[in-house]
Amino acid sequence: MKRQIRALVAVVASALFLFPLYLVIANALKADEEIVNQPAKPPLPPTLAGLSAVVEGGEVTAGLRNSVLITGSTIALIMVVASMLAFALHVSNSRLGNALNAVILFGLILPTPVILIPVFRVLKFLSLQNSFPGLVLFLCAYYAPFAVLVYRGFLRSVPKDLIEAALMDGASYRFIYWAVVLPLLRPATASVLVITGVWVWNDFLNPLVLLGPLQGNTVTVGLYRSVGQFSINFGELFAYMLVASAPVLGFYLVLQRHFVRGLIAGATK
């Protein structure tokens, strides 16, 4: 009986989570009038008019290019910086390292609107305002504390005898990080890449304020600006949402094998 109840709850929960995705896919393949009158109806017969208009317009292509550039640069920088910092804190295990770790984790509770104006002033002082490098550096600094938390949790499952044996053999900390520790961090890296990648890809406020309209739109900002003040083409809007969501879904499916393992590793240590 309990197994049947759990199965029923799982089916209901899955349906609730999949229903918005169904709405996006179904309405992306329907005409604008049909979306307004029957949004939950299956697309019978389907039409590619909305997808064709979005792709041929060129705006979604530019938004995808900018989002891929920003997201790829940010998660690559986060992976390197956070893994190095987590390894340094793991091997030091001193009071100073623990205090530094507490300061880093404090960044997890800071909401973006609170620090957005000071960040813009800092970027302006560095002549990085309204630029891709400035936005990437801010996103890396903002999401790195979470990555450090995941990496430190995973490093608890790595035997310290392995690091000590490498030190006794004359290996430097740089060699230990690149040759010993980093290959072991693949599950944690997959979790960091998926979670931070989704956060950066879906980020709206930071690109809108820090990037500005002169550098082009990301997919989220472009979706916001595609909504007209007096009229909305719902077919093109849902098609835009489908195209913008496809890379994130594909990225998750590729790395899902390591995703959960990287999150729960070290939790029982």
Describe the 3D structure.
- The chain has helices at about 1-30, 30-35, 50-55, 60-90, 95-105, 110-125, 130-155, 160-170, 175-185, 185-200, 205-210, 220-225, 235-265.
- It has about 270 residues and is an all-alpha fold.
- The protein folds into two domains: about 1-45, no CATH class; about 60-265, MetI-like fold, CATH 1.10.3720.10.
- α7 (about 130-155) runs antiparallel to α11.
- The longest helix has about 35 residues, at about 60-90.
- The chain is globular.
- It starts with a helix and ends in a 5-residue tail after the last helix.
- About 30% of the residues are buried.
- The mean pLDDT is about 80.
Secondary structure: helix percent: over 70%
**SSE series:** HHHHHHHHHHHHH
DSSP summary: helix tally: 13
Q: What profile does the largest beta sheet have?
A: none
* Chain-averaged pLDDT: 81
Quick one: overall form? globular
- Alpha-beta content class: mainly alpha
C-alpha termini separation: 35 Å
Radius of gyration from the alpha-carbon trace, in angstroms: 22 Å
Note poorly predicted spans: none
Per CATH, what is the topology of the largest domain?
MetI-like fold
For the record, the CATH architecture of the largest domain stands as: Orthogonal Bundle
Our estimate of the beta-strand percent is under 5%
According to CATH, what is the class of the largest domain? Mainly Alpha
Count of discrete structural domains: 2
CATH level-four homologous superfamily name of the largest domain: MetI-like
**How many strand segments?**
0
